[in-house]
Structures are given as structure tokens and as C-alpha cells.
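User: quick one, fold this
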Amino acid sequence: MHKNILLFIAAALVSVNTVAAKNNTLESWQQDALTHRIQESHYSMFDGVKLTEQQRQQMRDLMSLASRDTPSINVSEMERLHTLVTAKTFDEAAVREQTEKMAQEQVARQVEMARVRNQMYNLLTPEQQQILEQKHLQRLSDLKLQMAEKISTSAQKPAVNE
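Assistant:
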């Protein structure tokens, strides 16, 4: 779990550093990235559902409000973690504290995004909601199948002696 968090944060640091070098204002990049993530997550949630133009407009309005209201990414926290990771000695307690702080900020962003998704979901007709429920169940079924295949495949791999 901690390895995954560190890998995510390292990838995010690389992305931020690359984009920051290209953009004069990191703040505008954060806003664009957040808006893009919100739009992607909301659109993928509603894939396969035919929306009316009024529903589309209402969802665009909600996304616009969400992109302004969602807590922004704190670059200074990422820089602090980078400093801890690249220090001559590893301070596990400081890294743990920093990653937990960053995780809480991520939780706040996820809660806000879930709130907006709920508002968008409630704009749908019962028939559209039923389609989404069927698609959700299908995705869960597919995920379970993929996980079972992965477990089966990893069980078949021979152990490597070190």
C-alpha cells in the first residue's frame, strides 16, 4: 500500500515538474488538470446513457462549479515529500506524516467529486439510472473476472530463487 502511494506521488512529482516548467502559472495548470479529471470521471460514469441537452448543460454547470470548489493540489506538500524522499537518510516518521497529510487532502477532493457525481446522478431519469446500475454491475463482474485471472496467472508462475 505504501509502495503504491509513493509510486503515485513520485509520478505526480514528475508530472508537476514537467508541466510547471512549461507553464508560467502552476495554478492555472492545477485548475485545468482538475477540471479534466472531473470531466473524465463524470463522463465515464455516464457512458452509454443518452442524455438530453438540458441534462448535459446541467452537468456542465455542476462540473464548472466543482472545478472552482474542489480543493486544489498543494504543490508545497509534494515538494516537502520530494525533499524527504531524496534526503541522505530516510525519516520514516516524517514521510508517513507527510503522506498521511497528502492522503487526507486527496480524500477531501474525492468527497467533493463524489458529491458532484451524486448531484449529476440525481439529474437522471429512473430509466437512465437503471442503465447505469446495469453498467456498474457489468463493470464489477468484469473486474472480478480480471482479478480471478490475475490470481490464477500469478499462482502458475514458478518461484524465483534469489
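User: anything notable?
Assistant: The radius of gyration is 20 Å.
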